[in-house]
Amino acid sequence: MAQRLATEFVKARLLLPESQMSRFMQHIQDPRIHYRVRVLDGGSREIVLEDEDGEEVRLPFDRRRNLFVCELSFRLVNPRLTHLIRQLFVAFKGDGMVRRIYPGFVMLDFYAEGSVRRIIELTPGASRLVFEHRDQIPELEYRFASTDIEYEIACIRMQVDRLLDRRLAARNIEEIEQIDELLRKEAFRLFRFEA
């Protein structure tokens, strides 16, 4: 498996209601990562995370009414600090792009509301889509609401009724046998649709 060289958070964004800021701080529970909180003018905050190897990242939270907005772009090398930031990003429904840099290729992860929506692999000569989230609910709702099969069943039943009326009015054996054959075919179609 390829060794990750670095991770870049590009135009990443976290929106936290004021009530979730204490929960955010509780998520930073790693004995090898230390944090400092600076309270700035207007109630804004800056959280500095530093791992035991000295790598640090600054998370600036601008206060806008009852909301803390953190917009950030930075590069991390330490896997422990990277993992913590990714956990925070997912837990607090962050948006943005994360570039995972490996020898010879880059993976672009596009996040929306804390979930990966698309992953693209970039190599020196090409790019390819690795994953894309598709919302299946509208398609399933359409299929559930679709009445095509019910309509087809109703048409088959009407055809069977017409054939039975013709059979009752039939005068000779050949005509009755032809109608019986048609009834067998319609009965088989009806069985398939109702199953």
Mean pLDDT: 89
The CATH superfamily of the largest domain bears the name: Sirohaem synthase, central domain
CATH class call of the largest domain? Alpha Beta
Q: Helical proportion? A: 25-40%
The chain-level structural class is alpha+beta
Features:
single chain, elongated, alpha+beta, Non-ribosomal peptide synthetase module
Outline the structure in words.
The protein is α+β, with helices and mostly antiparallel strands. It has 2 domains: 6-133, Double Stranded RNA Binding Domain (2-Layer Sandwich); 139-194. 37% of the residues lie in helices and 39% in strands. The protein contains 5 helices and 9 strands, in the order E-H-E-E-E-E-H-E-E-E-E-H-H-H. It has a 9-stranded antiparallel sheet with strand order 2-3-4-5-1-6-7-8-9, covered by helices on one side. The longest helix is centred in the C-terminal third of the chain and has 22 residues, at 148-169. The protein is elongated and about 100 Å long. The two termini are 48 Å apart. The mean pLDDT is 89.
